[in-house]
Amino acid sequence: MPVIQTQLRPPVVKDRFVRRAKLHKKLSSMTHYPLVLLHSGAGYGKSTALTLFIQDSGLQACWYSISSNDDDLGPFLTKLIHAIRIQHADFGEAILQELETIQQYVQDQEIWSLVSMMVNEIEQLENELYVVLDDFHHIEHSLPIEQWMIHFMEHIPENCHVVISSRNRPHWNVLTSLKVKGNLLEISQEDVTFSQEEMEHLLIDLYEFDLSDSALEKLHQLTEGWAIAFEMVIQQLQAGIDVESVVQNRTNTLQDLFDYLALEVLSKQSLMVQQFLMQTSILEVLSPKLCDYVLGMTGSGSMLEQLADQQLFLQRVSEDHYRYHALFKAFLENRMKKEQPKEYQQLHQKAARYHEQNGDMETALSHLANMGDHGRLSQLLQEFGQEMLKNGKLQSLYDRLIAIPSQEKRHFPILWYYQGEILRYWSSYKEAESCYDRAESIAHDRDDAYLVSLSLEGKAQIYLDTIQPDQAERILQKAIDIREKTNATKEEMARLYHRLAENLLNAGNAVKAEAWFERAKELKLPLLDGNLEARLYLRTGRLEQAEKVLLERKKAQPFDESQHLPQSFRETDILLSIISSFMGKSDESKKYAEQGIHQGIQVQSPFVEACGWMRIGHAVQLINRYEPHLAEKCYQTSLEMMEKMNVSRGKAEPYMGLSVLYGVQGEYEKAMAAGEKGLHETEQVKDLWLSSLIQLCMGITALYCKKYEEANSVFMTVEQQMGHCGDEYGIMLTSFWKAYAARETEEEEVFEREMRAFLQRIQTGGYEFFLKERTTFGPMDVQNIIPLLFKAQKLKIHEPFVSKMIHELGYDEMKNHPGYTLRIQTLGQLKVWLGNQLVEEKDWQRGKAKELFEFFVTKRHQQVSKEEIYQALWPDQDESGANRSFKVALNALLKTLEPGRKARAESFFIKKDGQTYGLNPQAGYELDIASFEEWIEAGLEEKDANRSKDLLERGLKRYEGNYLEDRRLADWCLNERERVQVLFLRGAEKLAQVSVRLQDFDTCIQWCEAILRIDRSWEEAYRLMMYSYYQKNNRPQAIKWYQKCYRVLEDELGVEPMKPTKEMFEIIKSDKGVEVFA
Questions:
Q1: Which residues share a beta bridge with 133?
Q2: HSE-up (13 A, CA, CB side) for residue 117
């Protein structure tokens, strides 16, 4: 990649540049900050101020003047490394080598890798590193660069200092964190704007103008301290124009003022100089050689040097390279275009030819676009467009293409193909297909068989991207037939054969697809990837192999050459998410889905983003801490996005997710309706595999709603279809559900047959996770499987394996299992669920049965003697009476918790050990207070503020009220209630404190109020509230909370607030700055 050395040097400064003491002092402190952010509009002297400071201070800074052509991560990092090499000659060789392997879109993993490499190499430098990124606004729209910068600033080495100079302030969340920690020096437009006092010093003390205070005030009002306008005013005054004449210009805006002043500057020059200025204004960077070529003259070098010396807004960027000030360039170029349109065109044409001859195609394209030479622009894009596609310059290429009239594209039909490719990558499938159609039509008229096949391939790729195999097959076969007659290369043919194999997979013909794939590997054909091998494994039930292939790619080569452009549903993280859901790895599935959503946004592919939303819906269904409506919302988001893209086929999977979601909730009609909608999409495109999964969900729904005959009929169909697809995982699922249904209907022979088949496939397929984790198509409560295992053990079905599984699940000492998880909510009113069924108040049969259960939950860490139970629950009865009451309550409790337990059989949830009783710790019950404690304690120990906030919020949301509120008068739960309440208060206090550190003052106030509702005398909460309101510029409210604190502490404890609280009150009263103390 070519590196223009002039970009790596600060502009040359002249003695005329004035040092501004206040600004210079602020810049002098940059050595104490990891990040310095200098932002203001054009013409405020940012580059000049930085250059003067570096020159005067002798700072060994690495300078990088960014151009608009650097808006991809590759060019940006390459030039950044070369800038650092000015001071450290061997820096960044490994990073440059890594960049060479990246040809198209850069993905998250690669960005992280490049950040890590940069951070690690900088840390190895012996000296402090200072890097200036000038004109950063040219690349602020680049998402990969933004992500790289954000990650780099989050992990910036201690010996590194970055200075960003830009017209705009970046919208990065990391800036808040840096500022709170005192790691950001921000210099705004206000800092670089000239004050009236500074203007007076320059005009009177340095330039020795004799000006009155009134004249100075008028000049300051006119220019508003804008450096470039002020400099032009000085030139006017030096030319002998009096102040009154200058200020008589009645402009409405500063831009109008600049144009007026620029015209005044231009009019004072000779005609030759005026012409040179206007003609060369079409150039981004000027050099004597370039100017001589474009203007058809000699001696441009001396002219450039003369103009630079005359201070005519021409900046020397190196010994023989110059650049106009952006505002002055725009003024000159607009004037040239208006007054000399013919010459303007000719100059751009010459400049384009010069850059084309020197291999700078992008600059050549820019000149051709500016002059409107659509013919030559089309010709160059025809030659250069494929390379721009490969390099991921989609937006730049698209902007060029849409500027070319359709009539011109008839002469260059491949441009329609390029436009279709870009739109396809952006998920604009309808518009993309229209472009492919136009390319095909013109190519057909011109007998261009290759372009016809290329256009057909593009259209087929749309149907591959959206999994519509029936439509894709017809178009692909046509493309292959045509291309085989064009003497296409081996690589060209292999690409089409690869797409054909993928389409076979999409249609459910995985065996044929895999046979082709293996044959292609044997013949060493050059293959596209698109994660086809992993998808083959997924659709044939080899989940661990699929996961292994994808994880190895993420680790060794996160995204190879074929994946840097959007890959639709084939994105590695999108695939890993659904595989993780199928394997019961719910948290990992959610993580991958979130990464997929982020990647979709990053590469501007709404289809990828929509796939991420449906996959996150699958994940949160499996995570108990999320409410079902969240999964429903994720699916609806995906459906809405597919509707906007007009990709009806993409709705099938979210409908499948909704079907299984409604099904496990017992909503038969809604589940079946969602399933039918999904089937409508898959059957239209003949995707047998996904159709089978949707039907499986409908069968599970029928089973949960006790429609056993309907469920078994569906399972039989699904089993046959999965056999055709070659999906062993799908066949295993049908065997399980048929065995489950047989146990429910007491069909012993069917149970034995299907359970045997199920357990065999569990072993041969490596699906043991199905017995241990909740999975997408497994039972909603994994405990449902345990009774089936006990029955299989009794029937000696795969006995060694079943015994091993029962042991690993921790039930080898149990004789029975109810087949569901006991879920207990104690924070607030007691709620108990048997699996997914809520225990109603009437189900307790006796009030004392419920109280006995609450007692056992409170004493859950121990076995309790009968005597202790009598004393706690029946203190007024004698031993004999208490014993009778206990037996009645215990019997009622056992019937409530285990309604299907056989008479005199041991209880699963209540353990009896001699004369002691208690909750069975091996029963695997879920208790809200346990997860509450886990999250709060983790949040209290966590050092990272963001991570701590997340943990604490998760825990505190569980606190729906005091522990066992209906037993607030019972002595036996008093200690536990107080312990839990104190833990809540500590967690809420810590959350309020970290919220202050993160400058999230509203969250701080919310949790402080929650603290004070429980404990009115919690002084830290008052202090945090005072600080938060003060930071929100609400001093009256801050003072009000201090006064309330004072009254409460005096009334309830008879004490005054502590010294830190009083000191904060005094600071707030006097309105002095308050430091973050959390």
A1: 64, 164
A2: 18
In which residue are the tokens 């206090």 written? Answer: 989
Distance CA 660, CA 674 (A): 9
Query: Model pTM greater than 0.85?
Result: no
Contact in structure between 619 and 438 (CB atoms under 8 Å): no
pLDDT score at 561: 35
- The first and second tokens of residue 989, run together, are 């206090």
**Amino acid in the structure at residue 492:** E
Q: How far is 233 from 212, CA to CA, in rounded Å?
A: 16
- Assigned CATH topology for domain 822-924: Arc Repressor Mutant, subunit A (1.10.10)
Distance from the Cα of residue 655 to its chain's centroid: 24
In 3D space, the residue among 467, 426, 508, 469 whose CA is nearest the CA of residue 651 turns out to be 467
Residue 133 is given by DSSP the state E
Distance from CA of residue 692 to its chain's centroid? 32
Phi, psi of 1032 (to 5 degrees): -90, 15
Query: What's the token pair of residue 333?
Result: 């170029």
Cα of first residue to Cα of last residue in the chain, in angstroms, is 49
- Helix (H) / strand (E) element for 160: namely strand 160-166
CA distance 586 to 580: 6
Q: What is the CA radius of gyration of the chain?
A: 37
d(CA 78, CA 171): 24
Give residue for tokens 């009794």: 794
Cβ atoms of 162 and 156 within 8 Å: the answer is yes
If you search the block for the tokens 């490994």, which residue do you land on?
94
Low-confidence ranges of the chain (pLDDT < 50): 528, 559-566, 1072-1078
Cβ-based neighbours of 1055, under 8 Å, separated by 6 or more: 1049
CB 777 within 8 A of CB 693: yes
Q: So where are the chain's domains?
A: 5-192, 197-353, 369-522, 727-812, 822-924, 970-1070
Q: What is the pLDDT of residue 143?
A: 83
Residue 834: φ, ψ to 5°: -95, 95
Looking at domain 369-522, its CATH class is: mainly alpha
Tell me the β-bridge partners of 166.
39
**Cα 985 to Cα 708: distance, rounded to the nearest angstrom:** 51
Query: Is beta strand 837-838 parallel, antiparallel or unpaired with respect to 61-65?
Result: unpaired
